[in-house]
Design brief:
- The structure holds 2 protein chains of 2 kinds.
- By secondary structure, chain A is of the alpha+beta class.
- Helix content of chain A is 34%, strand content 19%.
- Chain A has 16 helices and 20 strands.
- In chain A, the strands form 5 sheets. Chain A has a 7-stranded antiparallel sheet, sandwiched between helices. Chain A has a 5-stranded antiparallel sheet with strand order 5-6-10-8-9. Chain A has a 4-stranded mixed sheet with strand order 1-2-4-3.
- In chain A, helix 1 packs antiparallel against helix 3, helix 8 runs antiparallel to helix 13 and helix 13 runs antiparallel to helix 14.
- Chain A starts with 13 loop residues before the first helix and ends in a 34-residue tail after the last helix.
- Chain B is an alpha+beta fold.
- Chain B contains 12 helices and 17 strands.
- In chain B, helix 6 packs antiparallel against helix 10 and helix 7 packs across helix 9.
- The longest helix of chain B has 17 residues.
- In chain B, 57% of the residues are buried.
- Classes of the chains: A alpha+beta, B alpha+beta.
- At the A-B interface, strand 9, helix 7, helix 8, helix 10 and helix 15 of A face strand 7, helix 5, strand 9, helix 8 and helix 12 of B.
- The structure holds flavin-adenine dinucleotide (FAD) (2 copies).
- The site of one flavin-adenine dinucleotide (FAD) has 38 residues of chain B, from strand 1, helix 3, strand 8, strand 14 and strand 17.
Chain lengths: 489, 406
Amino acid sequence: MSALADAPAHLVTAAFLDKLRSIVGDGNVLAQAEELLVYECDGYVVEKQTPDAVVFPTTTEQVSQIVKLCNAHHIPFVPRGAGTSLAGGCLPIGGGVMLALTRMKQILEVSVRDRYAVVQPGLVNVHLTQRLKGTGYHYAPDPSSQGACTVGGNFATNSGGPHTLKYGVTVNHVLGAEVVLPDGSVVELGGPVEDSPGYDLTGLFVGSEGTLGICTKLYVRLTRDPAAYRTMLGVFETVDDATQAISSIIGAGIVPAALELMDQGIVQALEQAFHFGFPLDAGAVLLIEVDGLEVAVDDEAERITTLCLANMAREVRRAKTAQERQLLWKCRKQAFGAIGRLSPSYCTQDGVVPRTRLPEILRFITDCGLRHNIRIVNVFHAGDGNIHPILLFDERDKEQVERVLKASDEILEKCIDLGGSVTGEHGIGVEKISFMNKLFTPEDLAVMQSIHDCFNPDGQCSPGKMLPTSAGCGNEYVPRKNPGRKASL
Amino acid sequence: MTNAFTPATQTELARFVAENAQGAKRPLTPVGGRTALHFGYAGKDGAQVVDLHGLSKVIDYPARDMTVTVEAGLRIDELQTLLRTERQRLPIDIAQSARATIGGAIATNTSGPRRFGHGTFRDYVIGISAVDAHGKLFKGGGRVVKNVAGYDLCKLLTGSRGSLGIISQVTLKLRPVAETSAFLWCPFEIFAEVENALGRLLQSDARPVALEVLAGSAAHLIANEARAGLPSASPVLCVGVEGTPQEVEWQLDRLRKEITPYGVQDLIRVEGESAEHLWTALTEFQTSADDPLTFQANLLPSRCMEFADAAVKLGVSVQVHAGNGIVIGQLPEEAATVEQALAALSSLRQFARQAKGNLQVLHCDPEWKSRMPMCGDPEPAWPLMRQLKQSLDPHGLLNPGRFIDA
Ligand SMILES: Cc1cc2nc3c(=O)[nH]c(=O)nc-3n(C[C@H](O)[C@H](O)[C@H](O)COP(=O)(O)OP(=O)(O)OC[C@H]3O[C@@H](n4cnc5c(N)ncnc54)[C@H](O)[C@@H]3O)c2cc1C
Ligand SMILES: Cc1cc2nc3c(=O)[nH]c(=O)nc-3n(C[C@H](O)[C@H](O)[C@H](O)COP(=O)(O)OP(=O)(O)OC[C@H]3O[C@@H](n4cnc5c(N)ncnc54)[C@H](O)[C@@H]3O)c2cc1C
């Protein structure tokens, strides 16, 4: 544990709690041990630490006052949305105050004419999608966790989703934000219009994992709904064939709206859960969606079908009805949920490789699983080269846990070797801090550190996250004792 | 601008900047194609020019990944020619592509008509290397299309106008080329009708990639450049579509039906070579610098037609990227003194602010600069940006006095 984690916990006194209550009201502060237990971890369940208090601000002004109060008492603080982070972004290192933004969940404005919406950070992603139904526009970022995660959490982690292949990740859809800086001051970055003069601080804040400040309002871009789409399921004998097909599709200059791979292990679990009619003997299936003009989608679907067949696909099915399409997507988005059927514990990795290297990394993953005797299944954003190998194990078996950790690290290191990254969308959090030195040089990290220090000089805002040095004294980070088990959804 | 230092490698660039930081501490001005050096305030005298044109190597072009890694001094036309061999492109319109460099284009975050359909540099730069004021070569992002490790330095450096680091290498996400493209050129009588048509197009069955409105002498100028015998009545709504011949045909047909009810005088198809000329004219308009002053306003798209109407009444010629709320305006020759120019600008500046936006001058008589909003009216985050500049460039060596620290 880092030095901060060992800092005395009694900084949060009864008098301090009273001050918190006077800011947000009695009903918006939790400080009892049993109440705090829920907040000891997020979707990364390996490291646990309870905060000393959880507050639920309802206005920007309250967020600002809480932050100022924490500063006055030298108490660390960390923002939290729905807590679905898979990288431990919400871990309250050193205890202190957790600001849960889930009660700031209003949609403040929707302007279809000007193609933007203004929302509060605690809004659940899918609620914005629902609100926009019928307007001809939607909010494009669609993480698989969109039924639970917040737009503020998406902002902080620069979330992606199946449709980011064509439409880009969160940052491509955020125009501006109101943020409370680590000193408690409130500032607007960007706004509803494009090209605000000056540096793109909005772009810098997206993906900063809460280390530069707390987002209290977002200006997001609305995207026109596709005129038409076709959703297909390509069925392959082997994962290798499926990944070759992906390379061929992208290589042919086709950018589908989504291109997701599910291997046999996942398909079997999904079939048990949803009875879709997936072929249980197939090595892998590709969920492929193309969208565009009605006059064009059939042609594109046809080209993709041909490429799949040329890469040994057994068959390519089309979703014939809207319901069939919806069910396919439901299966994909709830794939993680189905894994509980396969194993008592699991851990998901989030690596990226250039998409032409997918066959290689998947072969490596298979080998790696065999070598360490760990079962690995795969469901991932294949079109982006963003892999999510899921390592299945039993948490009670310490020796197995060791092997899972080894295998995970080997896979991520292989991603780096192949010219990729150790995280495509889940973030560094506390989980992957030790990889930062492998991805970046000391010079790169020094620049990132100066940016961090410029906004968050005392490091009290989300301490111990993302940068290997952000805890203040050297290269400390939370060491991983266990692999992440499962996202609690 | 003599005695430019022209590094041949990124290491050489870094060494030069490091020696400067430890020694003479002269202000440094990175330059690419020198097409936009007038951007921003004049800056300090005696700056040492660092010319990037020697850094023009293609580092890696894995075409099947649809990404490319190149050095910052590579010229835009060379880059696009290379990409075309694989039927790919960077779908950003960049003026003077035979001179402009990829580093300069990113440093100025330039864009053009296709930004409605394809976005801007912040959507395409996935990896970046730069030399900081101390002479350290650093990078952000990587070579893969999805990556959230560390702070997104690509975003920070895009549009930073050489004030935070000298960009030395970039990795870009690419798109397939469009098979063909075409426009509908639609002259109107009044702006209110154009606004109604634009409102309709937001729900169009087509998916246009450019929604341009031209007014004042801009319509005339651009019509001439397109060499297609287009009527230059003003205002003109000009809608661009791309795709297969079939997609283009279908969209033109739809658009015609959708726009017709709105008091349009004519709907003229622009295709083939004429369409190519028109794309170029729409891209180059912002650089036609014979006029005394060129500005860019950004505001809510729904307010753009009112803004354009007001501007035209002041004699300004305007190009509106109407889908994005971006207005490029050129003052008439009559605005020959700085007072006249300021007078013409003041109401427009106010209008833009009131429509949640801003107005900045891109180009004007160098003598006028000190009195002009060369970087727009300060945004609320300005102090924060200054602080950032100060912490990355404590001695103010990179383009000092030209941008945030002016
Ligand atoms: C089943 C499952 C599927 C998932 N699928 C995807 C996927 O497809 N794509 C993807 O990208 N991710 C996915 N994730 C990961 C996770 O859902 C995303 O990272 C999501 O954006 C987190 O949102 P949240 O509201 O839960 O944030 P939290 O987990 O509460 O917080 C995440 C990080 O953001 C910070 N933060 C939260 N709110 C704010 C704020 N307002 N201001 C500043 N910082 C803040 C926190 O401090 C923390 O560092 C998945 C997770 C699960 C459990
Ligand atoms: C009269 C005129 C008006 C223009 N108006 C507009 C306009 O309104 N909007 C628009 O978007 N474009 C405009 N441009 C387009 C301009 O061509 C682009 O911005 C161009 O891509 C800049 O590239 P360059 O290589 O010529 O850059 P240069 O002109 O050489 O440099 C432009 C700026 O970027 C910095 N810079 C250059 N290279 C680097 C580098 N490698 N690293 C860091 N900083 C660097 C320079 O210090 C300078 O501040 C205009 C051009 C002209 C000539």
